[in-house]
Amino acid sequence: MSPVVQNVCRTASAIASETRQRLGNIRTADPIHRLIVAEGIKSRAAGQVNRIANQVAPMLDRLPPREVDMLVGCLARVEHSIGRSTAPVERLRAAAHRRLAAAAP
């Protein structure tokens, strides 16, 4: 696996883990305050994964199909931790799908 994919997967895993931990550590009885804090945590994670997706998108054509698939899967872990998809990762997912379809025999 290329160093780029290793780094992205490691970073995405750390973001997803930190997000889940921070969401689980919200200690407030006020449901509105809880929602506001949770949304802040999720927005921060979404911003981080979006920056990564935008940085790696131009590299898709240079990666082997297996690594393209792994890359998208790693970023999807963060989306799963925040409970929503993000536009940059959706664009990356679509580009990866096109790349994988072009590489298929």
Element string (H = helix, E = strand): HHHH
- The protein's oligomeric status is single chain
Q: What's the gyration radius in Å?
A: 15 Å
Please, how many domains? 1
- Average of the residue pLDDT scores: 91
Major sheet attributes:
none
Helix content: over 70%
Structural key phrases:
single chain, 105 residues, mainly alpha, 79% helix
Write the layout of secondary structure elements.
Elements: H1 3-24, H2 31-56, H3 65-82, H4 87-103
Walk me through this protein's architecture.
This protein is an all-alpha fold and 105 residues long. It has one domain. The chain contains four helices and no strands. Helix 1 runs parallel beside helix 3, helix 2 (31-56) runs parallel beside helix 4 and helix 3 (65-82) packs antiparallel against helix 4 (87-103). It is elongated.
